[in-house]
Batch of 4 targets.
Target 1
Amino acid sequence: MHKKMFINGEWITEDNNATLPVHNPATGEVIGSIPNGGAKEANKAVQAAEQHLEDWSSRTAEERGDLLIKWRDIISANEDKLSEIISLESGKPLHESKVEVNVTKSFLTWYAEEGKRVYGETIPASSGDKRILVIKQPIGVVGIITPWNFPAGALAKKIAPSLAAGCTLVVKPAEETPLTTILLTELAIEAGIPKGVINVVTGQPEEIGGTWLKSDAVKLITFTGSTKVGKILMKGAADKVKKLSLELGGHAPFIVFEDADLDKAVTGMMNSKFRNTGQTCVCANRIFVNKNILPQFLEKLKIAMKDLLVGPYDKSNVTTGPLINQAAYEKVTFQVEDAIKKGAVLKMGGKRIDHYSKGYFYEPTILQDVNESMEIYYNETFGPVIPIIAFEDEDKVINQANDTKYGLAAYIFTESLNKAIQISEKIESGIVGINDGIPSVAQAPFGGWKESGLGKEGGRAGLEEFLETKYISIQM
Ligand code: ADP
């Protein structure tokens, strides 16, 4: 699969035909290549998006919505092909890629409708000879930078509301997983999304991102990825006072109270922790369990984890794929070894699976007696590791849960409605799942507090990111 960039309705290569390889993380094999584009292509893409902004933004919301629905239907017709590509380049099991395709479709469906509800306001004036109107307009050309862990889903969360709002786009997928974006673009063309509306540049992240940060035409950069790169973008955005929407890292607390239904807690744990092999920003990363129920919780968890089958996506019944690359494997290994050295007890797993010598397959792992002295306590894991911290005091556990620079998701397991509500209110994070390990959906605002990000994706708030508010004052 030797793919090209898509700019102004044309598939193009880098001038010197420079390419980057794309790997299958399960085997290390090269499965394709993409152009190693940079500033030149990033600028060309912006010119195209700028040139077609007026046409796209002046179409009716119905017309744009109809095209999003057509795109969704073409995605449905190509569901198997798309799921296969997602698994091939990200390593996730096929059933998870199918869920991701459904999530992608749900964002297109929801924003195709919501784009029709970009309402303005009229406000009573202070004098009889004045009128006050407020209108919402598309922000303009949007730069989209996506990560490898949800190559379709993360893109859909940005592309559906921005197109519905009337923006034109320049998109840079992650180097690890560009093929999904390219296939989705091919399907968008088939759906009739006009030329210049979606432009895809692949290659050098810093150059491409840097070009868009410097461009006057790009009015917003929406990014999903690490907090480290989010901070680089914030610094780079200062010069142009460019708007950013950032979906960054997380370090979600998962609190199991004494009165929790342990079956629900274990199901929530399995869903939250092992989706994408623990490589999501909302994964449960610090597991606080009331000490009186810890033995029963552990027993049930171990039984559930026995059903996990780690392996390449094309092997039947696989539930859990590889880590994305060597750096991810090294990080997980370091966190586990550091925790054990400092007193954590290894209850399950704890090492690489040797018989897949090419991919970075890691055993589903449980660590008990984790504490504040360990690296895993404060830093995002991005791997299939469950670090357990026993607690007694409910006030203290809330402080522990909030003792992190991150604030994306948190999970609470209790059968007490009062406790669930009170603790949800005290948790410093943008998303709380009560007895729910997978809370994200198209119609709800997903986004982090603290160093987990700025802005929201999904729901009404996710559309606002791509709109500017204009106040019109009329002297009669
Ligand atoms: P991860 O560590 O999970 O790979 P990154 O934050 O490094 O996450 O990458 C997320 C996305 O950000 C990818 O598309 C990557 O190419 C892009 N990226 C990385 N560095 C930069 C940068 N300096 N400017 C713009 N984009 C970047």
Note: Residues 27 and 359 are 5 Å apart (CA to CA).
Target 2
Amino acid sequence: MEDMTRRELLKTAGAGASVLGLMNLYGMAQAAEAEKAPPMPIAPSKINIVPPKEFLECKQLSLPYAYNALEPHIDAETVEIHYIKHHAAYVRNFNSALQRLDFARSMNDMTFIKHWCKELAFNGSGHVLHTLYWSNMSPQGGEPKGELLNLIKESFGKLESMLDMFASASKTVEGSGWGVLTFEPCTKRLIVLQIEKHQDLSLFGTYPLLVCDVWEHAYYLKYRNARGTYVDHFVNLINWNEVERRYNAVKQSVIM
Ligand code: MN3
């Protein structure tokens, strides 16, 4: 019973770092993460990692207002703990995952690739979404206008309908997560989405440059269960001109 309770609490603290009053649980979650992390053969401080050219360590942006600036809507203590503890941990762990992956690559050792990709997705997405969260609030609030307001009306009928849908989606997220207003580039309209947790192997704010379909339908007739062989063959087929075209199209993009 005790073990189950602890597991549940850790799950809550890890996935929903914005939950209030869970600082002690957060510490437990961090400790649990440290416990289950695969061992490194060399202490991090002794690793001589040569980062990729132009590699930038992710940094937490300054909060664009004082801790108490959002009162009475969100209290100062909540903002402070959320920013300096929860969000900061995402940034720290995101950088750690990037570093571990650099190290794995330098050692040609993919043993823990699954673990570090999960860490990358969880912490990177947590960082990106928190950065958006802080910057999409302001003490003054405001109203949408111009082209954005027109698109809101085209997409939802009227502003109030969008806000109602956004609020409803946010309130009904199952477990920990986020309510999101997104721009959907195929239809060029705005849509409301829910994010449950945020680490399901995606990293928000990234642009897909190259994808490999690993659903069984993509390889089973020829390769049966040998997905690895299929993937090994796939890499010979990559259209790098198209990958480069996509890269050039998005390289100046700003997400935060
Ligand atoms: Mn949070």
Note: Residues 66 and 239 are 49 Å apart (CA to CA).
Target 3
Amino acid sequence: MADTAAPSAEEVGVYYDEMADFAKLLFGDSIHMGYWDDEAGQTVSEAQDRLTQVIIDTTGASAGQRLIDVGSGTGRPAVLLAQQTGASIVGINVSVGQVASATALARDSGVSDLVTFAVADAMDIPYPEGSFDLVWAMESLSHMKDRVAALREMQRVLKVGGRLVVTDISEIAEMDPGDRELLFTCFLMSSLEAHDRYPEVVREAGFELVAVHDLTPRVNTTLERVAEGYVQKRDKIVARYGEDFAREVDGDFPRLGAAMRNCLGYLLIVARKPAA
Ligand code: SAH
């Protein structure tokens, strides 16, 4: 399901550089979905940290292990993981700006001995085969045109027996073409995998599946919550970016919120690199 006009890795990097300020205003300290449980009144940021926590718990990472975070965003997930587990992590990212701000975050959080960030493309990871005990990729694969090739590259840098932890949105019900285009444009995505097929794609890339957690009902209201937040923050958005900008994006988040609830899923997949 690759999009023919898929953006290049460089374009994705520039996009994240340019939207950093707006994304922080809208989402908070991380750029990923949230995990909503029965607790009332969770903010998007709190729900994001909860999702990060669910994923950290799933990694089973421990002190002394070496991890790679592929598409490391603001760096907050890697910093939280290192603080809790003592594992060392390198985050790779095509956004030069995010690498700089994530490096500052690691320093300010007192974990720069454990957490570092580097500008690198996930399709060509600059580490030798078998370098890592664990690869985690949260919501970065949808930016990559060839998901199997990206997963194979993650497989290459893993040690035999090492774990892959991937989270991503997926397509549960066919999206309206206009909604799909809006989703791809707003988040500069290259691909969206079918929900039921996703585990098979991980297997195709040479992994052995360990567990597939379907987090859809916990996650798929995120963009609706973001849409609510957008309305509350609209004055601030107008002050910073102008009325014309706000008018252009006013309808986007309600539409994306509904599209997500109706058509998108969310998977947390754990897999292992088998012996050759
Ligand atoms: N994993 C983070 C960020 C998710 S946003 C989190 O969950 O909070 C997607 C991230 O993937 C962005 O930081 C983007 O710059 C990065 N990314 C997208 N394509 C990439 C590629 N080809 N190589 C490396 N990083 C990439």
Note: Residues 133 and 162 are 5 Å apart (CA to CA).
Target 4
Amino acid sequence: MEFRFSEIPYKRMTIEEYKERAQVLIDEFKNAASGEAQIEVHKKMTALDGDFSTAYTLASIRHDANTVDEFYKAEQDYYDEILPQVQAVGNEYQKLLYDSPYKEYLKSVIGEIAFKQIEYSLKAFDEKIVSLMQEENALVTKYQALLASAKIEFNGEVLNLSLLGKYLVDGDREVRKAANEKRVEFFLSVKDELDEIYDQLVKNRDKQAKELGFKTYTEMAYYKMGRIAYDREAVEVFRNEVKTYLVPVAEKLHDKRRVRLGLDKLNAIDEGVYFAYGNPAPQGTADDIFAAGKEMYSDLSAETKEFFDYMLEHELFEVLGRKNKNAGGYMTTIHNYDHAPFIYANFNGTSGDVDVMTHECGHAFQGFVTRNYEFAEFNNITMETAETHSMSMEFFTEKYMELFFKDKADDYRTMHIEDAFAFIPYGCMVDEFQHIVYDNPQFTPAERNAAWKKLEEQYKPHLVFDDEYFGSGAFWQKQKHIYCYPFYYIDYCLAQTCALQFKTKMDENYADAWDKYLAFCLESGKDYFGSMLKNAGLKSPLEKGCVEEISKKIGDRIL
Ligand code: ZN
């Protein structure tokens, strides 16, 4: 299909139009006299959702790329308002699909996994919690606005939290110390508000769960996240393995880094720094990064070459840092234009820019190779699978890092694997914390901080804080997932464990590891996570013994 992103025309889809078209299809579905006829209606429903998603995605990318453009800001506001209504219609349609008299036939076409997903999503939603959900969204927005409001004076500049970020990992310890003091000052100034917002969020989510008949929000969240492949007990086994086998290796790793940095003790302000000079950064301009990306993917495989050329040809990157752009980075899909993957980011001269070429392109590559699948359900992947695609691509592209980092490529690889490995205990901590919080919705802010502090002692025992804010067990307040995407975090830990397995496989036989990875990408969301891993020759991180094995292998390699 011929198109360029900048030339795609935009037209709003109103809620009236959506509802009208959906109603016609819902009636048609009810009256369909066979499974085959229902599948035909299902295709039309997917097309309608595609039309809506295309309009919504275009508006939201263009708004993110220029927040002062009044036209797209109004469009974004419009969709934010109508989205719950669109979801309610979707829910109504899903119920019909799920209760269809031709269910067995439908299952044979769009897959058993799709039906399991629908079952889970129906359990986690009901019209009666819509007003609570709206209140929840408002609280999340309030949290984001509060953090975005930070105006920190530093080095003669006024910075927000993300711009301050680069000083927090400065090679000069005095600079990062001063930057952290400023950050602490800001968090102390909004501490009570942060506690209040979280308290309301926890109580709101607890109420939603109870309205739906769940004992706790934890239970509801597993349905909401579509965790069809594992439950709370399995996650607990994983976290315990991490505590027993992975944390000791990670601690040795931190100590090795401490020596490299020439420090007597590793303080919290040294956590994100890997070398005495600071962290390796890409050399050259944004154009150089793209040129390197092109060279890398051309060499890696025929599929990645085709992918990257396609991305460039259709202008599917919006990644340069600019004033008036929203923070953050993501990959999304433009449904009506070939299901084209699209990458949004903000280049800032750090190694994070290369992550766009490796991590975000990992997501986009998987979207690209599966873009022509007949049913959207085949690509309805859960987060641990999606992050396995992207985090593994970070390792498959490691051998090309000279293209980006020149003489610092080895340093980058050292930083990358240490960072990847040491992330897992932190991620588990975020997950366990949320289990504790939602199991105990009556907790006071002080009790929550005490719980966090206790987890820090288990997962990151080396950690020393000098300041009165982060040192008091309040570090979790800067982790936006805890406020905005509850229970979304263990996914990264599971995915990282799989990516590290791919890493050890590619050390043994790169070509074979790549073939398995490609096959795993192509399976998309067609099977259960554990089965797809098995097909790729990997162990499931939720199986006993997997974390122990990978900890040993990676430990042997990097210690
Ligand atoms: Zn990702």
Note: Residues 359, 363, 387, 390 surround zinc ion (CB under 6 Å).
